[in-house]
Specification:
Elements: H1 4-18, H2 23-43, H3 53-79, H4 95-100, H5 102-105, H6 111-120, E1 122-126, H7 132-142, E2 146-150, H8 175-186, E3 191-195, H9 204-208, E4 212-215, H10 220-233, E5 237-243, E6 246-252, H11 261-264, H12 277-280, H13 285-303, E7 312-317, E8 322-327, H14 342-347
Parallel strand pairs: 1-2, 1-4, 2-3, 4-5
Antiparallel strand pairs: 5-6, 6-7, 7-8
Length: 348
């Protein structure tokens, strides 16, 4: 009896693994092949695939139960609030840290006090993709004491053109956990907590545990949810965005007089007007440039060095090698931050 159907499924799975297809696409392809085989048996011409309609139906049902069980476990894990990383008693600055941060220590804008502020800081990085990769690496290298990295995606082959924190042999692994391991390997003095799920507007308590949030997500819905949670928690938000050859960075901080995302972009863009990178494309080094700017602004914000981007937006054009700065302002009628914050902002 031929087992063509079995080897067809094996071939599809192997091709998906070789070409680095996202897990959901691979499962969809396998489900489509199984459906074709089952329909062929029901129509009376499935002998070429082997087995029987009942046999294939039972096999598909068992596979579906296994996948549903794994999805349920993943959902339960995603809802769990990560346990806080225990912070050991301060042993003082070690010789290794003095050597590691020597180039910071000689900067008069940072020096010893600024480096200690970085070590005591708590940062939440949302998204470990193109923007999150340089953000994570540079903040870990800079010695930011506690970093939480949140991302629900897994590493795929198409990520590696720009997400330089990952390697080819890490395909299929969770981005949050993989990025956390890379950050710890870069700087063991930094405590990193991976959160393998999305951050939503319900994560106010999680956000309130941090001094600063950096948003590297690539959809308006995700950015809007993070902005709402940060406004409610009164935590500053550094946001970056990229598309094709251009990127932008700004600081949303309505609790201290700056605008929030909804002040500048009150409604979602029309369909097709701001497509994601997967549709519009993006030049590989651009996330590195914009993500590095985000990390730089985070270090400035935490140490008090220079002038930050509250009330300003930096726009970078990689195709023509130009950058420009535009002013931004809070809207009193903003539906997210326009009511109830005036007095609190003045008292901050």
């Amino acid at each position: 009896m031929t087992v063509l159907g079995f080897w067809l499924l094996v071939g599809v799975a192997l091709a998906g693994w070789i070409f680095g297809l996202p897990r959901r696409w691979l499962l969809a392809a396998l489900a489509a092949v199984w459906t074709v085989i089952e329909m062929a048996h029901m129509a009376g011409w499935g002998a070429a695939f082997g087995g029987s309609a009942r046999g294939w139906l039972v096999a598909g049902g068992l596979a579906g139960l296994v996948l549903a069980y794994r999805a349920g476990l993943a959902r339960l894990r995603s809802r769990a609030v990560p346990a806080p990383v225990p912070v050991p008693a301060d042993p003082g600055v070690t010789d290794a840290e003095l050597d590691r941060y020597a180039r910071h220590l000689v900067l008069r804008e940072i020096g010893g006090p600024g480096q200690m502020r970085l070590r005591d800081a708590r940062i939440l990085v949302v998204g470990a993709g193109g923007l999150g990769a340089p953000v994570c690496l540079y903040l870990a290298a800079a010695g930011v004491g506690r970093i939480t990295i949140a991302d629900d995606d897994t590493v795929s082959l198409s990520n590696l053109q720009r997400q330089v924190i990952f390697r080819s042999d890490q395909r299929g692994q969770g981005k949050a956990q993989t990025a956390a391991a890379a950050m710890h390997a870069l700087n063991p003095h930094v405590a990193v907590t991976p959160v393998p799920r999305r951050i939503t507007d319900a994560d106010i308590d999680l956000i309130a545990q941090h001094d600063l949030v950096l948003d590297g997500t690539d959809s308006f819905a995700a950015r809007e949810a993070i902005n709402r949670a940060c406004v409610t928690a009164r935590v500053p938000l550094i946001a970056g965005a990229i598309a094709q050859w251009e990127g932008q960075v700004t600081l949303y901080d309505p609790a201290r007089g700056g605008p929030c995302l909804a002040c500048l972009f009150p409604t979602a863009p029309a369909p097709g007007l701001a497509p994601p990178c997967a549709e519009a494309g993006v030049i590989g080094p651009l996330p590195g440039v914009v993500g590095s700017m985000m990390a730089l602004e985070a270090i400035k914000h935490l140490t008090g060095a220079g002038q930050g981007l509250r009330g300003r937006m930096l726009i970078f054009d990689g195709l023509y090698g130009e950058s420009r700065m535009i002013g931004t302002a809070r809207r009193p009628d903003c539906p997210v931050c326009g009511s109830g914050l005036e007095g609190r902002a003045e008292r901050s």
